[in-house]
Amino acid sequence: LACLLSLLLSVIAFGQEAEPYIATVGVDQAPIRSAPFQDQYVTTYLNVGDQVQVYRETKNGFLAIRPFNDSYSWVAAEYLELHADGEHASVGQARVPSWIGSYDDRSVRYGYTVLLNKGEVVTLLGQKQLALSKGSRARAHYKIAPPAGEFRWIHRRYLTGASEMQSRSLAATVEQSRDQSAVVLASSTGLPSESQILSPANP
Asked: Fewest C-beta in 10 Å: which of 82, 170, 174, 200?
């Protein structure tokens, strides 16, 4: 599994988590990304009036938001032990990537921000033969509900309804805590790009 991780020179420092708040999307076709970088793939789009629950902010202006009801991720079938109900599974080993799903699953180069723990229970939504990157071999993967600790990301310029107080509070928290925690990107290949994938949120 170590070969899956590509450490990058670029890191994004996070502040401590503030109280979650609700913000409203102010434009149509606002991209929701898999990671807090402009070159990361889009998982879905939101439109004017849609609301998001914000948990934290990065130095480069991206907000971590709760995944939506139709959000999902992918886990290789070989790492899951199915339960009798057919709707849940336990993770069979430590540090298993949860690959963030996209509305266009055919053309993305997958990334992850969460590594699942051994024994962690996930909710199954479906199954598919999936290639994680162009040219890679397709393998059986289960579609799962996003696991704990996994966010989606929107840039704050697409939002309205976040009060100035909330903005100042988040910005101050980030500034005060720059060196306390970081997100490093990681992907399905060992080939680094500008920002390829994200480090585990729960290593």
From this structure: 82
